[in-house]
Amino acid sequence: MRINLSSHDLKAADHAHHLHPFTDHGTFGIDDRKVISRADGVWLWDTDGNRILDGMAGLWCVNVGHGRSEIVEAVRAQMSELSYYNTFFKTSHLPVIELSKMLAEVTPAHMNMVFYGSSGSDSNDTVLRMVRSYWDIMGKPDKKVIISRKNAYHGSTVAGASLGGMGGMHGQGDLPIPGIHHIEQPYWFGEGMQSGMSEADFGVWAAQELDRAIEELGEDKIAAFIAEPIQGAGGVIVPPDTYWPEVKKILDKRDILFISDEVICGFGRVGEWFGADYYGTTPDFMPIAKGLTSGYLPLGGVVMSDRVAEAFHNSAAGEFYHGYTYSGHPAACAAAIANLEIVKKEKLVERVRDDIGPVLQKFWHALGEHELVGEARMAGLFGALELVPDKSDLAKRFANVGRVGTIARDHSFKNGLVMRAVRDSLIISPPLTLSEEEAGLLAKAARKTLDDTWQTLKSEGLV
Ligand SMILES: *Cc1c(COP(=O)(O)O)cnc(C)c1O
């Protein structure tokens, strides 16, 4: 690196010149930041000399772990051969062809075509335009409304944030855009438990929200339903077992498209290639990003079903006026190919399902015994701990939502583990290459974090 400053001066320069994403800038002081300088496997090092276990795989993306020379070498080789060319005007190139073929092999059998972008957010912009264009092509131009769910995360562009169901995001920039309808989410611990229903009944009820919305708005107006198989940024919300089977029944009888947002769940996170495989759903679109390249370079895409691909190949469809300069970027595709080769060669999907997944889940569920934890849930390597003030009354919550989560998150960092706080829960999504020993260290740091948080809450009179 050319920049040669002390750790403090780096932080000061960052504070002076770099506006961070998803940050409350008024309270983000110079010394509140960590500057990450190096990473290897599941470990990060910062410029203050700390070693930290990356329990979030970067931002849910570094599935094959940091510092994989196979990916670095593949990108270097591709950049020397062809660092950039576009895919617009009847041109293509080797890496985008190879990657598309590879994706057709690992995605569900009825999905064989990909449109590329550079992120999950722009993939959802593509989805929005493709969904509406699909119904135009099919001669049903009134089908325009997309049903999504409250507390969903589908990205941060105008379309992504509109499809998402985050109130805070909608409050900035007059979102959502018209034609997007949000229904209730299948969040048992946060909302279902308080309803008086059993978990199974709540799952069915939340699924039937979809049917009620279709009835209310009219099936002839509804284009699609979009959902994450398991909500990620919303707090790793694993729906009740009854949820997806009921949604499937509704989708089977209704003439609408289904978008399974696989940006986090895809590529092994839940112990199957995709969340759609995990829950046995049949998507028309799968937005992908994150684990596609394990974050080594930015790449996203939309995998589509054969019926959608056929519609766009219909000669009556005309030109689809959509694309990005970096659609199918050669270096990013080379990173994705090398990344997917690692996933296959090291059998990471099977490893999460049969081996390291069950190991970490066992540690995680043991943390559920802690006096601060109301629920410990995990699917694959994708988990959350719900923090509660009174374990004898699980419906009770801390006043001032988010404060306890932040205290716990800060303790976690001090204990050498990256966990993220969502409201008053702690979430993890570590690299799929996590070893058994590292899983033990993760659980130990998480337990210490719960103990430290409990102490802080006691001393502040919050429990
Ligand atoms: C992260 C995420 C996105 C947005 O992806 P970006 O690459 O950050 O634009 C979309 N959907 C889901 C489910 C995500 O987790």
From TrEMBL:
Gene Ontology MF, one: transaminase activity
InterPro entries assigned to the protein according to its UniProt record, in alphabetical order: Aminotrans_3 (IPR005814), Aminotrans_3_PPA_site (IPR049704)
Record protein name field: Aminotransferase class III-fold pyridoxal phosphate-dependent enzyme
Pfam families: Aminotran_3
Signal peptide annotation: none
Record family assignment: Belongs to the class-III pyridoxal-phosphate-dependent aminotransferase family.
Cofactor needs: pyridoxal 5'-phosphate
Source organism phylogeny: Bacteria, Pseudomonadati, Pseudomonadota, Alphaproteobacteria, Hyphomicrobiales
Keyword vocabulary terms for this entry: Aminotransferase, Pyridoxal phosphate, Transferase
Organism name: Pseudohoeflea coraliihabitans
Listed PANTHER family: AMINOTRANSFERASE (PTHR43094), AMINOTRANSFERASE CLASS-III (PTHR43094:SF1)
